[in-house]
Write a structure and sequence with these properties.
This protein is an alpha+beta fold. It has 13 helices and 5 strands. The radius of gyration is 47 Å and the shape is rod-shaped.
Length: about 450
């Protein structure tokens, strides 16, 4: 198995151009055997050529030693084997050189040309030698055998190493392609894992935001009314004891309702049901609800709660009760409904209820005593709601309970409405009041 690119560069641990010491030892051994073979074959070559034997041996040693360069320069090695073939030298050099050439990454036309030259050279040399042996009488066979032997010998020397080299080269390229594909798949899987982690982190952040919004909607309205009643209770405690008792009872009722809604929401979180049913429930960090759970547990010990099934959240049928609570707190509020009332998806009804609830809470906080108009319109494919308050009286503004505000009410309403594909608009009116409007598709 081979490596490519950066892995191949990192895997170079051998000397010079060898990737590994094992390859260097193998090439060195083959070069030594080839040099010995060519050196021995250089003796008869020197005698036939009429040159000193030492010169023939040195020539053979040098020619055979070129096999050491087969990985770096396979073409010169094959050319040397072709050049010394007339001297009947370099049998091992020819076989190993052709194998290395065929297994290399050189173009096929170059491999084919050099293999053809080696085949023709071996064929010619074999044919000439056979003719010479027959002329000297060393071989007593028919003339038809000479071409057959020449062709067989040349093919036997050239074809096997060439085919083996082509097979090894193709297999090497296939393994490199598979390795690159595996590396590409690994990178893609890593990228997908990173994206999945990003989506999980986004889902966790969204869930934290949703939990915070639910906590705000559940607690803020009830607590705001409790503060308003407590301020009224403080003002009339000595002047009108009966009204003070009534306000105290209202404060208790508000507290029980706030704790009940908080218990229901925490129960939904424990059960793993998101309530809205619009996206998959993400993991809920305990730290996000720990403080609220502790407060609910402490308050439940002081105010007894009736155990009951976990509810599905508020709905539009509870708007009359919601407005009645605001009226009991001293707010002049009227409700007008247009169109025929009908059932909507739980998410739509809950969002519509929360918009009205948060808008009334803002009136309690910022415009105590102001007259407020709540309008609800049932249309063919949508439901619209509007909460508009008039400017608060100066006396009421001066005696306001000064409820704290975190500035998240309008943001939470907008997120709820836009999340269902609706439109949310809020802002001051020309008369000095404030208006909150929302339109939610009925099919959300």
């Amino acid at each position: 198995m081979t490596t490519t690119g950066e892995e191949r560069a990192q895997g170079l641990s051998g000397p010079w151009w060898w990737a590994r010491w094992r390859s260097a030892v193998l090439d060195g051994t083959l070069a030594l055997l080839s040099a010995v073979e060519c050196g021995v074959e250089g003796v008869p070559f020197a005698r036939d050529a009429g040159i000193p034997v030492a010169a023939g041996v040195v020539f053979g040693l040098l020619a055979g030693s070129t096999l050491l360069l087969r990985r770096m320069w396979p073409i010169p090695v094959v050319l040397v084997s072709i050049a010394i073939s007339p001297a009947q030298m370099g049998f091992l050099l020819t076989i190993v050189g052709l194998y290395t050439l065929a297994a290399s990454e050189l173009p096929r036309r170059i491999i084919t040309a050099l293999a053809g030259m080696s085949l023709v050279g071996t064929l010619v040399v074999t044919f000439v030698r056979a003719q010479q042996d027959m002329a000297r009488g060393d071989v007593g066979i028919g003339e038809w055998v000479v071409p057959f032997v020449s062709i067989t010998a040349s093919l036997g020397v050239t074809a096997p190493p060439l085919l083996l080299g082509l097979y090894v080269g193709a297999r090497r390229r296939l393994m490199e392609s598979l390795r690159e594909r595996a590396d590409s798949l690994e990178r893609e899987l890593q990228l997908l894992a990173e994206r999945a982690e990003e989506r999980a982190e986004w889902a966790r952040n969204e869930e934290r935001t949703r939990i915070a919004r639910e906590m705000h909607d559940v607690v803020a309205h009830r607590v705001s009314l409790m503060v308003v009643h407590a301020a009224a209770l403080q003002a009339v405690a000595r002047k009108d004891p009966e009204k003070a008792v009534k306000n105290a009872a209202l404060v208790g009722d508000m507290g029980r309702q706030a704790l009940t809604e908080l218990r229901e929401m925490l129960g939904v979180l424990r059960s793993g049901d998101g309530g809205a049913g619009r996206r998959e429930q993400a993991s809920v960090p305990l730290a996000a609800v720990g403080a609220a759970a502790a407060a609910a547990a402490a308050a439940s010990r002081a105010v007894p709660l009736d155990e009951g099934p976990v509810g599905e959240g508020p709905c539009l049928s509870e708007l009359d009760e919601l407005i009645g609570q605001s009226a009991a707190a001293g707010m002049a509020v009227d409700l007008s409904v247009e169109g025929e009332a009908r059932a909507y998806a739980p998410a739509v009804e809950q969002t519509a209820f929360r918009v009205v609830q948060e808008a009334l809470t803002n009136v309690h906080k910022h415009a105590a005593g102001a007259k407020t108009h709540v309008r609800l319109a049932h249309r063919v494919s949508e439901i619209a709601m509007q909460v508009e308050n008039e400017p608060p009286p100066e006396a009421a503004s001066a005696s306001s309970a000064r409820l704290p505000s975190g500035g998240n009410g309008l943001v939470g309403m907008r997120e709820r409405v836009v999340g269902l594909g609706g439109v949310f608009v809020s802002g001051p009116t020309d008369a000095g009041g404030f208006r909150v409007s929302a339109v939610i598709p009925a099919s959300s």
